[in-house]
Amino acid sequence: MITLNFDPELEKNQQEANLQGLSIEAYLKDLIEERLTQTNTLINYNKTILSINQVQK
Question: Could you name the domain of life of the organism this protein comes from (predicted)?
Fold first, then answer.
């Protein structure tokens, strides 16, 4: 017997991929790249703040 689990987040991503005319794989790849870019931006921002704080000490 096969059991399928419904994942609302996956369903939402599949619907968004369909709206954009992308495969789920391509959509998730783009989503991961976007979030990675945002994360790297925040890391660089935090490093800048830390550097400024070190100079001010």
Answer: Bacteria
Domain range enclosing 40:
11-56
Q: Rounded to whole angstroms, what are the CA distances from 13 to 4, 9, 50, 56?
A: 17, 6, 36, 45
Nearest Cα to Cα of residue 12 among 29, 25, 24, 30: 24
Query: What pLDDT is stored for residue 57 in this prediction?
Result: 76
In a domain, 41, yes or no: yes
How many structural domains compose the chain? 1
pLDDT 10s digits, 11-43: 899 999 999 999 999 999 999 999 999 999 999
Per-residue pLDDT at 46 exceeds 90: yes
Query: What are the φ/ψ torsions at residue 21 (nearest 5 degrees)?
Result: 70, 30
